[in-house]
Structure formats: C-alpha cells, structure tokens
Amino acid sequence: MQLRYMGFDQHDNTRAYKFDGFENGHLIEQLVVNTDLTLFLKHHVSIQEGPDLCARKLKADLAELGPHDHELTNEDLLVFATACADEQARKAEVRRRANLHRGLPSRPNS
Hints:
By secondary structure, the protein is an alpha+beta fold. Helix content is 41%, strand content 31%. The chain has one domain. It contains three helices and four strands, in the order βββααβα. The chain has a four-stranded mixed β-sheet with strand order 1-2-3-4. Strand 1 and strand 2 form a beta hairpin. The termini are far apart.
C-alpha cells in the first residue's frame, strides 16, 4: 500500500495526522495516526518529523490496517530519539577519528 500524507487536525495537545492509502492507484482507505504533541518535546524530536514517523508507524501496522485510528506512542518516539542519538554519536566518533588521523585537535562536545 502506498501512503499519501493529507495534513493534520489538532485539538489541544493531540494531533491527528491524516493519510490516504492507495493500491494500484486507487484510494483504498483513509487512515489517521494520533499523537500527543508533548511526547515530541519530551523526547526532543522535531515536530516536522511527525508525518514521516506516522507513515512509518502505518507501514509497520500494515497487517492491522483498517478504518480504526492508529497512535504514535511514547515508545515509538523513544525508539526514534534513541536511534537519532546513536547516529549522532556514531558520526561524532567518525569525525573525531578523522581529526586524530589528520593530527587535528578534537573539539569538545557541544
């Protein structure tokens, strides 16, 4: 199934991300992923990541797709934030090793 992001509705701290699900170019169903926006702040995740995270959630839920709503949970955002932090640490280590190889002093973490 292909997904097309269609925008969101927001009520207080809850955002409902809307997607259309297509197969063979035909609209099959409309899907919604709800999330508590305070979770983005809690895990230091940019709100601009919301549509992509929700699309990933829907693709992971393909076996259960249906007219019911889906939810981007605390666990989903924690996994994403942890993966981002791990990737940043990996990149910092690569830069540090490259600087050591070139004889440059390493920069303190900022």
